[in-house]
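Page 47, continued from p. 46.
Same chain as before, 429 aa.
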Amino acid sequence: MRYVIDLLYLLGIVAYSPVIFYRRLAHGRYKGGWDQRLGRIQRRQPDRRCVWIHAVSVGEVNATRTLVEAFAQRFPDVPIAVSATTDTGLARAKALYGDTHDVFYFPFDLSCVMRGALERINPAVICLMELEVWPNLARFAAEKGIPVVVVNGRISDGSFPKYLRLRRFVRPMFERVALVLAQTPEYAERFVALGCPAERVRVIGSLKYDTAQTNCEVPTAARLAEQIQLGRDRLWVLGGTGPGEEAIGLEVFRRLKQDQAFADVRLAVVPRKPERFDEVAQAIEQAGWDYVRYSRLKAEQRCAEGRPPVILGDTMGDLRAFYALASVVFVGRSLVPMGGSDMMESAALGKCTLFGPHTFNFRQTVQVLLAGGGAIAVNDADALFEAVRRCLTDSAYAQQIAAAGREVIARNQGATQKTVDAVASLLNR
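Result:
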């Protein structure tokens, strides 16, 4: 089976290589880190065993923040290593941890790569964010007696049927997992169905509630407000948007601006993927709006001229500042079938939060927010227009939604401490 897995990996790499070359040329991705992807990883203190935390991309990396901090406090003498799969994920991990912890690309799961990578990383325990279990990683870790823990465990609605069809092949991989700390009972059942022993699966909630900061003070928000000349204007933020959503949002904004009651409302569009910044800028131009790119204001340390009605948030790491200034927030990748973006950050800040019907990647969060009256779901552009108009017109209604959302987030916090306690029990063995 080991050789079959490696053969399938190699075939997959060959099949995917044209995509890699295209993205490298068109978007500047996959240009670096190949030595790390091939297992040649260098740690600051290679002789000391570490806690290795792996997160795929930006969302998962952000979810590690409270966990890394708690591990560092609980085990001050144990090094922490953080890996990511995507370029944006690695950039975020370096921004968060590059000065204090080892940060590197996740190595390919080929036998010849993963075996050497484990020797160089030298982990005492491996924490995989959400799912990220790989056959050779699980096998070599088990052979070396290194416990593998799925942290913040979830198997999405889209992934679960695929894993079920391959259950015969993935069961040995899941049987080697030492512990699964699942977000919900439903996710826990899915891990058991795929082969994880039931006694090794626990439900402890989502780490993302802990990383969602309920403190409304965002240090960079004041400077952002100054640079975009916000003043007393109201700001509608489209955050974490995907293809097709910006056009919908711009059309809804046009409809709003036809009413003089919304003359002071401005729009900030913050796409999820940095490679789409230029594409979205073009869409704003084609819609006929005067706009400013925040990246230019930030780079040149200057303020916008006048009060541009549309601001393109084409920087990384500033979404929370935009949310902090918002009167109402729409969380993207949800009017189009992309699974949604993280709505916890907006709700935790006490902002009136809206999202579309396609939120399957955040189903549990959506359920608790809607059940607690802490968010608004809209099905299409017309419903979005009506919801935004009501929230901007009826401030008491918007404040009620915002306060309820923040309370829901606060009530569901606590998974970080449970995770650290569970991992500590494995380390103490």
